Amino acid sequence: MHSALSLGEQLKDEMKEGGQEMPFVIVQRVKSLLTAVFTVMAICMAIIPSAYSDASNASSGDETSNSVSAEQAQQEALKELSEISNGLQQLKRNVIELNSGLREMEEKLLFPSSTKYSVFVSLSSGTFFTLESVKLKLDGEFVATHMYSESQRQSLSRGGVQKLYITNLSQGNHTATAFFTGVGPNGRAYKLAQTLEFEKGDTGEYLELSIGDDASSQEPIVRMKQW
């Protein structure tokens, strides 16, 4: 168990030393190693409940026979199993933390700040429109699509923001078109589309696709804002 915990600490130290300059191939290798660690942990966690049961049953039998030494041995075995279980839980937390850091590092390596371009979806109001799906076209090519569940719609209506797409985009002029489908006024099928021509600068930028309501016409509208 000690060696497994040491492995988690070594991986954490390696990430800190590598920082943002860690090569992409190393990130991939560490992710593969984390996958292997998760597999071993799953096997161990599956075995432990059975071991607990066996040790407890054996302890019960020894109490009947008044075998004090056997009972002590079983108690020690249960204690050791408990320590192993606690160690695995700690290792699991370490691996999850490392995996989260690796995802952030991988994103920085794949999408440098100078060319990074992210597209988000928000919902400012949903009185006249129930969102079902979105498609995004960038420079004439469809690059992203998403179908929304009820829980996702609820999250957006409470002010949440969805990261729909992230890419590398060169400086210069570009065109983005968003297509939304859902249920509009009077419960009928409704489609929304909006196009934005924009200029990408030399830093990371964001495009927000915001669905709102037009109170005057009592219909939904789409606003596209770059920031």
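[next item in queue]
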Amino acid sequence: MNGTRAALEVMIPRDRGVIIQAGSALAWRSIPLQSAYCGAKAAIRGFTDAVRTELMHEKSHIQLTMVQLPGMNTAQFGWARNKMDQAMQPVPPVYQPEVAAEAIYSVIQRPVNELWVGKSTIQSILGQVFFPRLLDRLMVKKAWEGTVYRSAKVVRPTGRPVHAGARQSSGPRPFNDGARRKAVTISADLPGKVAAGVGVAVATMALRALFRRSGKRR
């Protein structure tokens, strides 16, 4: 948020620029064992939407976009504080960092409100919109088990309580096995456009059927 403020101080006088927030599917769909992370990402999404509308009100040409990412193969789980007895990992499928870089670069060239990256991100967001209760039940088992990294050891620094500052030893890309290098991406506007198109098609078919019935009665 402070970074956005700093960028706006430079961009507002010029009335141009693109601000990109690195988001997550978890900004939409929270999962167990990552409540703080989910809350932070949801807050950034709300902040971004609010600032975007403020800029629109001022007729500004500055663009704000958020790239909602899937689980990434980074060192995040190696340095983040862990109070669990087991090491943690991003919920599979996991993608290589280049996937995020390509997605972010694409919205520099063509800004959209939100870009959803990866099949799992798209499924999570649409599932949360249409079937939130069902996803609650799925997350109880799938996300809980998917977050636990059973093949890694938790390294705890000496001189601290057992549950304080726990971390797993890892390199910059600790989840290389099976990490994907390509991902489908869609704009958040697409589902709405598809739904509108389907609605128009259904309405057209209904009107045609109604006119046919009226013609037969005459």
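[queue empty]
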